[in-house]
Amino acid sequence: MPDNPSAWLYRVAYNKLMGELRQQTTRLRILKQNAKEEISGPDNDQEIFLEREVRDDLLLMLFVSCNEMIPLESQLVLALKTLCGFSIREIALRLFTSEANIYKRLGRARSCLRKLPPYTGELTAAQYSSRLPSVNKVLYLLFTEGYLSSHAFQPIRKELCDEAIRLTTLLAEHSIGQNSETFALLALMHLQSARMPARQDESGGLLLLEEQNRNLWDQRGILIGLEWLAKSANGDKFTKYHAEAGIAAEHCLAPSFREIRWERIVEYYLILEKIAPSALQKLNYAVAVAELEGPAEGLAILDGFEPPSRLSSSYIWSAVLADLHRRCGNIEMTNFYRDAAFEAALSPPVKELLRRRLGSGDIS
Fold it and tell me: pLDDT tens across 100-111, in order?
């Protein structure tokens, strides 16, 4: 037995997953050559900007606002509020913090801006490089808000997802953004976006993964996402975007919900716990373990865990716990967390999804 079993398991999983990603490159090239419709992935004939300057105004301003002299948390708030048009409430929900904290971060960002020299219209290569991770984070949050929106009557905002993909594509095709992190982020966006046509029913209600008609998924989008994911494996860095894109790929490639390789998804979450730990990732890890080993094992992951108050008060936390307790037959805890989830739910479509999954009356 290794001296550090946790580190050893992480290394084994990491090596295996990176190896499989690299093996996809050749297979995907063959798929692309045989496809009836040309895929506009990283090897397409679209113009690739090799100049140092970023030509898109919004993308350029993202780099300007992500100034390293501004604290990272304030950079994100400034970009989301000023450039992406998010409300304070939307930013708070997306970052799992209070609106008061968002106001403070925005104030710090504006205070820092006043002390900085005015923007002269050009950034150096070093500035682009140092600010790229922050820009990627903003684009990730922009896409995430579109994928499952905090808007009361728009649970999905496709226009935000499309804009995030557009900007990330420009970045990935530009010399400053051609790295494994940006490629993996773009892969994640395409793989998630490919399922968009099946995520709502005819009345606009949200559908769970197991309820979705996989025939409606955008197969071209999946191939593009897989191609970017394979390309991202050529680097020597494995980021949270790699892991999340890998999870999305497992969902997209499974012929049915029953055939999802949950053991692979659990491995990705183990890596995420090492490289980008968060309370939300731990919750998702518990869900994956529950699918692989049973709901009791999923609950065991969360036993004794104290999430941040902003997450524990969200419908996501309560809904997962209600579902796991329901599957375990824990009636009292199911009712408790289900009621909390309904109370915290942000929109009628989310409430309806919870009602369909958890029921609407006390379980007895």
Answer: 999 999 999 999
Q: What is the pLDDT of residue 213?
A: 97
Report the C-alpha gap between 136 and 62 in whole angstroms: 10
* Structural domain boundaries in the chain: 279-364
Q: What are phi and psi of 51, to 5 degrees?
A: -70, 155
Separation of alpha carbons 363 and 353, rounded Å: 17
> What residues pair up with 200 in beta bridges, in sequence order?
206
Give CA–CA dist 175/233, Å, rounded: 18
| Residue at 269: amino acid letter | Y
- Residue 303's Cβ-count burial label (10 Å; 0-12, 13-18, 19+) is exposed
Which value, to the nearest 10 degrees, does the dihedral of the CA atoms of residues 299, 304, 305, 308 take?
120
* Side-chain-side CA neighbours of residue 266 (13 Å): 17
pLDDT for position 312: 87
> pLDDT class for 27, splitting at 50, 70, 90?
low
- The confidence score (pLDDT) of residue 364 equals 44
Residues 6+ apart with CB under 8 A from 262: 288, 291, 292
- 13-49 burial code (b ≥16 CB/10 A, e <16): bbeebbeebeebeeebeeebeeeeeebebbeeeeeeb
The mean pLDDT value for 123-131 works out to: 92
Rg (CA), the chain: 21
- For residues 247-271, one letter each, b for 16 or more C-beta atoms within 10 angstroms of the residue's C-beta and e for the rest, the string is bbbbbbebeeeeebebebbbbbbbb
Angle at 250 between CA 165 and CA 193, to 5 degrees: 25
Determine how many CB atoms are found less than 10 A away from the CB of residue 240. 21
Chain center to CA of 193: 11
CA distance 305 to 327: 20
Terminal alpha carbon distance of the chain: 46
3-state class (DSSP) for residue 320:
helix
